[in-house]
Amino acid sequence: MKPKLTIEILQEEASTFAEIETSYDEPSLYGVTDGKAVGTYLEHKLTAYLSGIYEYEQGNSASGIDLPSLGVDIKVTSIKQPQSSCPFKSASQKIFGLGYHLLVFVYEKTDDDENRTGRLNMQHTIFVAKERTADFQTTKGLLEILKRDGNKDDIIAFIIERNLPVDEIGAEQLADRILETPPNQGYLTISNALQWRLQYSRVIQKAGIVSGISRVR
Fold first, then answer.
1. Which residue, 110, 123, 124, 214, is the most exposed by fewest CB within 10 angstroms?
2. pLDDT value of residue 61
3. pTM of the model
């Protein structure tokens, strides 16, 4: 029987994996500039490594995240522009978080022309708890409104000003929920699009300083 994978073990293994990967020359990565291809390579390699040792539920397109049993999605991004996309479910994700944790690998890629290999130098490996996956400016603004004794009308006006992808009824429902359960301060930058565009510069800065954002390596 394989041991069960936990979030704590995942973070330890992610640190080890990042260290190994940083010193590994990969012929299939030579000349590859497509960030999606690099991300797919690294995600598959990590999940294959984990499934060889641990028991856990494999991700599929229905679950939408890589490690559904742990509620963790793996994100791989270049240090040049640390960002990625994720499925849009509802406007509430920008306020209350994505609904799952993120394990973010930030790499710098170099090519060895002589040996025709590519190497991913892992600059940062960061675990973002789901409580911290909302949009920074949106949650900051809402928390300030609540602190200043703001009411439902103030919150609806803010939601409309921020161009959240939501209709009038949705804005009212969100305002009620915010008054009932104020959101946590988020640390992602989430841009509106058909898919959310997540930017990670702030979590890189805050890793190890803010609770819920851990520097794994």
1. 110
2. 62
3. 0.94
